[in-house]
Amino acid sequence: MGDARASRRVVTRGHAVHRARRMFLRHGTVDMDALARDLSVSRATLYRVVGSRDALLTDVLWELADHLLDRARQLRTREGVDGVLEITRYFVGALRGSAPFADFLRAEPETARRLLTGGRVHRRAVLAQRGILLEAGERGCLWPSSGIDDLAYLYVRVVESALYAELLSSRRPDLALAERTARAVLQQTRRGAPDLI
């Protein structure tokens, strides 16, 4: 009887992501069986709604990252290159200080590596960084628009090398080196910067 009621319950993807995000913030993971029980639906219904655990985790991780990026943009006090770096500094510090996120990286390194550095979370991060660069460059036309996508991609890869150093190479992150590298990338690609070659 309970299973029949659960299978008839209508659950949207947005509702599932919201509950999964709450679970992630409490436990540093998303347990699909527990989430199905929480939503009062069958496991099959949950998978039909969200597609896969990876897809659900991608949405959860991106919602958390997007929230931090929005907060960092609101707190920014500088313009141009320094403003871009200020946003990144806040974002990296907040993410690295998140206990649920640290638990997730430690407990599920393969899943974290797959989703964060090669999947939709990475692609969304590049798009968000593109927006940050365009926003920072509006007043001073800092970067040529023709290369902004490549710059956003490269910048995100530099940041990922610090954020996920333990996942990518089992090395301790060197945040100072990552920031110097990110600054060099931004300054070198500015409109009118001298060519390296």
UniProtKB/TrEMBL annotation:
Q: Pfam families per the record?
A: TetR_C_36
SUPFAM superfamilies assigned to the protein according to its UniProt record, in alphabetical order: Homeodomain-like
Domain QsdR TetR regulatory C-terminal residues, every copy: 79-186
Matches recorded under Gene3D superfamilies: Tetracycline Repressor, domain 2
- Per its UniProt entry, which superkingdom is the organism in? Bacteria
Question: Could you tell me what this protein is called?
Answer: QsdR family transcriptional regulator
Which species does this protein come from? Streptomyces glycanivorans
